[in-house]
Fold each of these.
Amino acid sequence: MHNKATMSSGGATGAVQPANEPSTDAHPTVITAENLTKTYGDVAAVDGISFSVPAGESFGLLGPNGAGKSTTMKMIGGVTRRTSGALHIMGLDPDSHGPEVRAHLGVVPQQDNLDEELRVRDNLLVYGRYFGLPMSYLKPKADELLEFAQLTDKAKSKVDALSGGMKRRLTIARSLINEPRILLLDEPTTGLDPQARHILWDRLFRLKEQGVTLILTTHYMDEAEQLCDRLIVVDKGRIMAEGSPAQLIREHSTREVVELRFGSERNTTIASELQGIGERLEVLPDRVLIYAHDGESALEQVASRGLRPLTSLVRRSSLEDVFLRLTGRSLVD
């Protein structure tokens, strides 16, 4: 797998030079963080986290709003200086080699910051000029990226005429103008409808196939399971767990979960009558969760005790169950 996106044989004409990489292995480490911290006064937004990301991996930071995910992304991108710890991007410290690091990064911020006054294609051309890329490269590259983002027929449209999903795809296309080796995506699908999310996921899968390293933050468990080879679960600036989605679910949860709703007034009081069913119980404000290796069997035990929930559902365990087990609260709290 290549370390650099090459959607066509053309490339930047020497404007963006490869950084010195830490090794010549098939999958060199492109990001290394050691005891990384960022404090604002007495508040530790990022509290001593360590991780490494090999080239070509899709690496996720999963956690609720305020967990420190976006702050970590800003430090990787060289936008925010760290308070302490070590951070290297392709062998370079972003605090001291910001321009060199950013030359190899594509950044998709949490909020689209497209130029609403410019037409769609011109957003790509103008952004490319910030990297010093020549128009002889930018014009065909912009057309290629618009096709990749499924926006070719919108090339001459004003940005404010695009749907939310189209704007998100244009932001991603813009981030790829310099053929980055690493793409940072901060909550890439927040606010999108299900169809737009799946289209975006498909584009990201294609980038990964081309060898782009993806770093993404999300609080959507299904997104993390779909897109991430490996992830860290972050809460209050600290890493709670690390591994592949399947590994984390296997280590911290049961195979299945039974969701029962008895009504908000009864969920807590009826929990005592569910003791002994499954491996463990979690009582949330709106539902009771029974963690069991055989959900249908657990549901039958509920019925055999004469308990009649308003609704019941058997599903497989997810990363949200992992987060609940590790922190005692759900991702949407």
Note: Residues 29-244 form a domain with the Rossmann fold fold (CATH 3.40.50.300).
Amino acid sequence: MARTDGADMVPVTALGVGDSPRLRGLDLAHVQLLAENTDGLPPLLVQRSTMRVVDGRHRLAAARLNGTRQLPVRWFDGSDTEAFVAAVRLNSGRGLPLAGVERSAAAARILISHAHRSDRWIASVCGVAPRTVAALRRRPTGDEQQLDMRTGRDGRCRPLSAEAGRRIATAIMRQQPEASLRTVARQAGISVGTALDVRRRLADEDGTASPGPARGTGPAPAAEAPAIRPALIKEQLDRLVRDPSLRYSSQGRALLRLASATLAFTEQAETIAGATAGHSRESLHLVAEACAQGWARFGSYVAPDADTTV
């Protein structure tokens, strides 16, 4: 086989049609368009072990229509399921775009072969929203796999439940109390915000604050309230307001406004909670939890012991 521009030249008769995410088969109008405009077409991607086309079915059909004898190809070395993922990824990003129903069908199929992959990873492959993948994952298929871990787009495995990571983080903090939150989070496979929560709960257990309620049984901030001194917090906020690095930047001013509003709200939290309608409490609880976690993560990022080199 001759080579051209880094690709191998392969006889058209040696190539077969691979598995495709296209539910409607070939688009004959697109094949005709490619047959009339052959200049600059990229090489086909071909699975080496089977000689089946992973990406380039329309280009192959156009070549056969023109009577072309050889085509440039690049090789794909992987399994059939990996070849399908590659086909979906390439067809979602260039050439004739996949229809919405084809992208959703591809996501459902990849969920079966790559159940360990995260919703965001599958969504990035198929060109759909992560919530679409999450909805597909919730559908009963009769072949559900109970997995404890998922692999994200960065290739890292993370637990579906943070409880195992919390236990690991607890052990690390007891053995290495000087370890930074980011170091603990990385070793335990949890977020920095979760690591911060573990550290606070350990402090409660050690007697520096009253033990907090179990997760999900009541408002989490209650255990930390005794440690907050309003006068000290107000003093620190006043100091931040005078900080030029914050006062004279748009992000700094936004942060100061948000912090001031949050502290003002917390002083009236009990009164405001008592005035809320019963039907809205569940939603408010979820939103409040998300806000608290967001502030906790931010706090861990600016903590004096934060490991900024990671």
Note: Residues 142-149, 208-227 have pLDDT under 50 and may be disordered.
Amino acid sequence: MNEAEVTRATFDQVMVPCYMPPDVIPVRGEGSRLWDQDDREYIDLAGGIAVNALGHRHPALMQALQEQADKLWHLSNVFTNEPALKLAKRLTELTFAEQVFFCNSGAEANEAAFKLARKYAWDHQGANSDKHEIISFKGSFHGRTLFTVSVGGQMKYRAGFEPVPAGITHLPYNDIASLESAMSERTCAVVMEPILGEGGIIPADPAFMNAARALCNQHQALLIFDEVQTGAGRTGALYAYMETGVTPDILTSAKGLGGGFPIGAMLTTRRIASSFGFGSHGTTYGGNLLACAVALALIDTLDNPELMAEVKRKSDLFLQELHALNQRHALFSDIRGRGLLIGAQLAHHWQGQARRLLDAARDQGLMLLMAGPDVMRLTPSLIIPDDDIHEAMTRLDRAMNQLISEGPES
């Protein structure tokens, strides 16, 4: 089957229908641009859902992949390997962590974090202890495995998969009083996203994060930060926690960590990691040589204060342009986020119609994301050129005009 024979209709024939992709099939990319099968060009502000941190075909990542592909691809964890050790060493040098567990995705990283939290409590409180409660927050998203979708705070993702794992409590996000009331000696962990991603791009209040840290200390519970979406430079710091004054006990990373090559990581201290003794957890592909080589090249690229400052400057440019568009169109009730994780909340009479805005933008040659049905989400390359930002906003302007001319759905 050649490229011309593969169309959107092929998806319906051969793929499990858990996705609903548009008719467009991108076939190549360069920087912040994509081209489809018909050679139509798009500006990519979706970034593979915050994955393509350095855009498409970044030379440092391509070189790392090609060099490692010429040496060795896979060993499994029966053996260790040089790229995994070098990447783990680099991550521990740059973060609070002392030890790292590699896997293949954010869901796997969170699965490992939740298992480790319970195992740590079991090790320190005894097998008969009821210290197993994990507290999460409404609107959160932590992955699609049965455990992670249960910890996640969105019922739509776990409906139909019951019974789900027990011992999980969901509380309102940014509500200190409810967290104080809920925490007890049964709580083994609190997990939070520094910015709710799928839940609408809602940043955590600094006071809320500090309260979570203090309450975890008080109740001998672990604080887990899910930085799958906020990590790898997305907010203008290597990890978002670094600018909050709050240090977690466990941090999960994925998405942008591999710049497009699948990899996940769970970072923690040596004391906590000791509960994952030999045979207690594992993965066949985790720590894959190709993935770790690419991720190391990405981390080395991001370890640059000037680049991180540029992320924040580009964020300001996006926000300035979005507010200017909204002055003309009044399509959004709020524009928020940090760094290059930006959400625009649709105004009341446009609620539930983010999908229509994405469709209109694609018609204008612009790739966007949603964060729920009411929020347009932008997660572009961290090095997107200013000219591409300006052109993207010109295309978004046309898309907003198109949407407004059609009017809101009743």
Note: The radius of gyration is 21 Å.
